[in-house]
Give the backbone structure.
Amino acid sequence: MIDYYWANFQASTDFRVGEAVKHLRTMNLPVVAMYKPSAERHREEQNTIDLLHDAGTHLLNDLPSYDYRTATDAVERIRVQEFMDGLIAAADGSRD
């Protein structure tokens, strides 16, 4: 979890998750992290992703990655924020 906190741009997943959390917090939205021990974490993670996709859920890891050597943190930060804004708007629309 500390890697997400630091949101190191050279580690795209850490950066995207960290920036997504920062963005949600600026909007006073709750962020909850849960941990579940597993002997087969990769298989269980993929099963969870598949179930969420089957339910029509968009995930942050659907956002294409970037090459830190050619991308800029400002552009990638905006991409993450826009992605999160889209998720929030879709969730708000589903509550109508």
Q: What stands out?
A: The chain has a mean pLDDT of 92. Residues 89 and 95 are 10 Å apart (CA to CA). The radius of gyration is 14 Å.
